[in-house]
Amino acid sequence: MAKHQSLLKAKQLFLDYYLQLLPQFVSTAQIDAYLSTRNPQVILVSPYHEDKIKKLWQKQKLTWTPLAWFPHTLLWPENADLGQSLPGFTQGWLYPLNPSSLLPILALDPKPSDAILDASAAPGGKTIAMANYLFPHSPNIVANDVSRPRFKRLCTALKLFGYPQIATLSSPIQTLSQKLNKSFTKILLDAPCSSEKHVYNSKFHLKIWSPKRINTLCQLQSVLIKSLLPFLGSNGRLIYSTCALAPAENEDTANKILSKHPEINLQPIPDSVFSLTNLETPDHTFLRLNSTNSGFDPMFIAIFSKH
């Protein structure tokens, strides 16, 4: 009983805090509904095993519906429960993720000629999505992550999916220059963030949540972007993305970088990305998915370029 009351109190503190922070919500009940909604995932499919997977799905009479706006990706089968193990999962040929995770890849717009750094890559979904986007061209990607357990998951995922040729590193971004001496035309920083939807649905993380964590993460995010700028070539593109709701981790962090680095410009979010989100009043300066956009989990995207 005491544990239950403690959890309820933690939830209420969380909801009250974000109600003050986010004007798009008019009640804590609305925030609760938004964060509690389980959106259907999409599934990245290994191009190297696609025919085998399709035959396995046909045997189980699973619906095979490609996602219209991203290659080698499927909608979750209509006749399968969300989250159930599907043929191809155990072999590592499939990778489920929320469709919002694909939007930074579209904003990055990888080309076969690009040298790409995925700076915080584990557990590997966005790296695999980039490689699928470029297929059948060989991806020129360096995938880095500081966490050793997550890095091991990244390496395993790439190998099983069919992309063992992707270079991998495990280094803090702040000291990446000690291991990496090259420039990139495209950099993706899917930054560590508050990840409020995950926190809200995790009893453990909700109980230890504190607004102070936002300040700590803001400082880290600014340091990470600053550390990556020397790797960005002239006219290169750096995507800064988070799944945070807090503006301090999103617009505020982006604007702080712009104010301190005159060599960096902010590029508008392409119409092709906005058209997928059902935003009623799109502001092309940033992409913010942080209210009731159907089918998408929270996502923020800023596009930096160096001149």
Automatic annotation (TrEMBL):
CDD domains: AdoMet_MTases (cd02440)
Residue ranges that the Swiss-Prot or TrEMBL entry lists as coiled coil: none
Listed Gene3D superfamilies: Vaccinia Virus protein VP39 (3.40.50.150)
Alphabetical GO biological process terms: RNA methylation
One Gene Ontology molecular-function label: RNA binding
InterPro entries: MeTrfase_RsmB-F_NOP2_cat, MeTrfase_RsmB-F_NOP2_dom, RCMT, SAM-dependent_MTases_sf
Any matching Pfam family: Methyltr_RsmB-F
PROSITE patterns per UniProt: SAM_MT_RSMB_NOP
Domain SAM-dependent MTase RsmB/NOP-type: 29-307
Domain of life the protein comes from: Bacteria
Active-site feature positions: C243 (nucleophile)
Keywords, sorted A to Z: Methyltransferase, RNA-binding, S-adenosyl-L-methionine, Transferase
Residues involved in S-adenosyl-L-methionine binding: S120, A121, A122, P123, G124, G125, K126, D145, D190
UniProt similarity note: Belongs to the class I-like SAM-binding methyltransferase superfamily. RsmB/NOP family.
This protein's name: rRNA methyltransferase
Lineage of producing organism: Bacteria, Candidatus Woeseibacteriota
